């Protein structure tokens, strides 16, 4: 990040009160700014963003549309520097182009994965039919054989039954037995 001291327009110290939670201890305006940022309204958000979460997984800066904040924690307090970004728009535009390309790539990957899932389901149906050819097997046996959940095996068996590829032969206790047609 390139830093220019002219970007700095304010500072604030956010402390932590055991009863009230995060509170603004002091603020300082470093230049005449048109910013109407009410720090009291944002104190909780800033404090939680910079101090919350797992150790080592905390941001050092957060970029908003009109300003960015860099925070430095000390004990339970947080010193926030408020800055006006200069020249960020072109970087954001470039990043938006990269993100758009990545989204398109991810959607393409998901479409391929969906096609692979459909191929896998069709292959599983074909295997079930072959296993049940001149054979009888219960739903729990098929479920374990293909490592499917109860709902998944029942969905497949219903589809195969509706397509008249398999039929129910008997029911023993709660287990339904199947064979190929």
What does this structure look like?
By secondary structure, the protein is an alpha+beta fold. The protein has two domains: 5-88, Beta-Lactamase, CATH 3.30.450; 118-181, Winged helix-like DNA-binding domain superfamily/Winged helix DNA-binding domain (Arc Repressor Mutant, subunit A), CATH 1.10.10. 44% of the residues lie in helices and 28% in strands. It has helices at 39-51, 88-132, 139-146, 150-162, and strands spanning 8-17, 21-29, 61-63, 68-74, 77-83, 137-138, 166-172, 175-180. Helix 3 (139-146) packs across helix 4. The longest helix has 45 residues, at 88-132.
CATH fold group of the largest domain:
Beta-Lactamase
Shape: elongated
- Major sheet details: 5 strands, antiparallel
* Helix and strand pattern: EEHEEEHEHHEE
Strand content: 25-35%
Instruction: Calculate the mean pLDDT score and round it.
Output: 82
| Separation of the first and last Cα atoms | 69 Å
Structural class: alpha+beta
Parts with pLDDT < 50 across at least 5 consecutive residues: none
Helix content: 40-55%
The CATH architecture category of the largest domain equals 2-Layer Sandwich
How large, in whole angstroms, is the Cα Rg?
Answer: 31 Å
Just give the CATH class of the largest domain.
Alpha Beta
Please give the order of strands in the largest beta sheet: 2-1-5-4-3
Number of domains: 2
Total count of strands: 8
Counting DSSP H or I runs of 4 or more residues, the number of helices is: 4
Name a few traits of the molecule.
181 residues, alpha+beta, Beta-Lactamase, Arc Repressor Mutant, subunit A, five-stranded antiparallel β-sheet, three-stranded antiparallel β-sheet, 28% strand, elongated
């Amino acid at each position: 990040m390139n830093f220019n001291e002219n970007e700095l327009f304010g500072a604030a110290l956010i402390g932590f009160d055991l009863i009230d939670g995060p509170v603004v201890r002091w603020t300082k305006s470093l230049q005449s700014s048109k910013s109407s940022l009410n720090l009291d309204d944002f104190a909780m958000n800033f404090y939680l963003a910079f101090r919350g979460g797992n150790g080592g997984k905390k941001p050092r800066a957060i970029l908003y549309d009109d300003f960015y904040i860099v925070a430095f924690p000390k004990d339970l307090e947080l010193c926030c520097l408020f800055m006006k970004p200069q020249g960020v728009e072109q970087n954001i535009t470039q990043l938006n182009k990269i993100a758009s390309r990545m989204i398109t790539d991810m959607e393409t990957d998901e479409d391929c994965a969906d096609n692979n899932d459909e191929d896998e389901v069709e292959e599983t149906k074909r295997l079930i039919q072959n296993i049940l050819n001149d054979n009888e097997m219960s739903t729990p046996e098929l479920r374990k054989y293909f490592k499917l959940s109860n709902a998944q095996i029942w969905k497949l068996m219903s589809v195969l039954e509706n397509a008249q590829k398999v039929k129910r032969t008997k029911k023993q206790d709660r287990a339904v037995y199947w064979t190929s047609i």
